[in-house]
Write a structure and sequence with these properties.
With about 160 residues, the chain is an alpha+beta fold. The chain has three domains: about 35 residues; about 35 residues, no CATH class; about 70 residues, no CATH class. The protein is about 30% helix and about 15% strand. The strands form three sheets. A two-stranded antiparallel ribbon has the order 1-2. Strands 3-4 form a two-stranded antiparallel sheet. β3 and β4 form a beta hairpin. The termini are far apart.
Length: about 160
């Protein structure tokens, strides 16, 4: 025995009958209209049709892969106070700590001369992601140094 209930569509207000208790829309077009209405982003509150706006989605995805990489390396998770690449560049005077040449902040990865964060004591060797263990480097310089090099000597003095 089925019981049909008269409901009012959440989009157009037309009354319709439904057997399901959770149905709020009279048709697929009304559901599509409701789905495409702008609503506040869960991350920043900006208007968007999705759950997260594009910048918040990118940041959440980057955080996901950052966390995944830390787990893969068996490292401790990053501190709650994360330093940004712009803050690190300002602190280091936009100079690569390996070759001492200027770093162009406008270049984006994967460009060889784009700015990157270099861990002085590599995470693979038990280093952490604290600002004191980070320095600005060109991507190519950072890649060539890998997890070795003479940078560890600079930590002693």
């Amino acid at each position: 025995m089925s019981s049909f209930k008269v409901r009012s569509c959440a989009t157009c207000g037309v009354e319709f009958t439904s057997q399901r208790a959770v149905t709020r829309f009279c048709s697929d077009p009304c559901w599509q209209i409701a789905r495409s209405k702008p609503k506040p982003c869960d991350g920043c509150g900006a208007e968007t049709t999705a759950r997260l706006c594009e910048p918040c989605r990118r940041e959440r995805r980057a955080d996901h892969f950052r966390h995944k990489n830390f787990q893969r390396r068996h490292a401790t998770p990053p501190p709650s106070r994360r330093i940004t690449l712009a803050e690190l560049g300002t602190r280091d005077g936009w100079r690569c700590h390996l070759c001492r040449r200027k770093v162009n902040p406008a270049l984006k990865s994967p460009h060889n001369w784009s700015p990157t964060m270099d861990h002085l004591d590599p995470i693979a060797d038990g280093g952490d992601h604290e600002p004191a263990n980070l320095a600005l480097a060109h991507r190519i310089c950072n890649t060539r140094r890998s997890t070795g090099g003479i940078v560890q000597l600079a930590l002693i003095g």
